[in-house]
Amino acid sequence: MQTIAVQIQDSYVQTFMNYVNNHSENITISKDKNLKFDPYFYERKKDLEQIIEDSENGSMELLSQEQYDKEMEIFFKDLKANENL
């Protein structure tokens, strides 16, 4: 079985539901609780999984808190220096 997301025009919902009811042996509808709280849940999940994979295989560098603080300090100094340009 496969799970898909379907967007339905408001004016077509009843027609779609009638179709689903007539084919209920092949279709199951359930509300996804993840989408209730975050409509982009699955896109964000996919992005996060990619970030984790990239950090684990070394294609993305992770900074320590100390490294991050130094980088941000440099960034803000550069930003302030270029502010008047």
Provide mean pLDDT, rounded. 90
Instruction: Bin the strand percentage.
Output: under 5%
Distinct helical segment count: 4
Q: What is Rg?
A: 23 Å
User: What class do helices, strands and sheet pairing give?
Assistant: mainly alpha
- Stretches where pLDDT falls below 50 for ≥5 residues? none
Query: Roughly what percent helix?
Result: 55-70%
Distance between the termini: 59 Å
Main traits of this protein?
mainly alpha; 4 helices; 85 residues
Describe the overall structure.
By secondary structure, the protein is mostly helical. It is 58% helix and 0% strand. It is elongated. It starts with 12 loop residues before the first helix and ends with a helix.
Q: What's the topology here?
A:
Layout: H1 13-22, H2 33-37, H3 41-57, H4 65-81
Offer a concise description of the structure.
By secondary structure, the protein is mainly α. The protein contains four helices and no strands. It has helices at 13-22, 33-37, 41-57, 65-81.
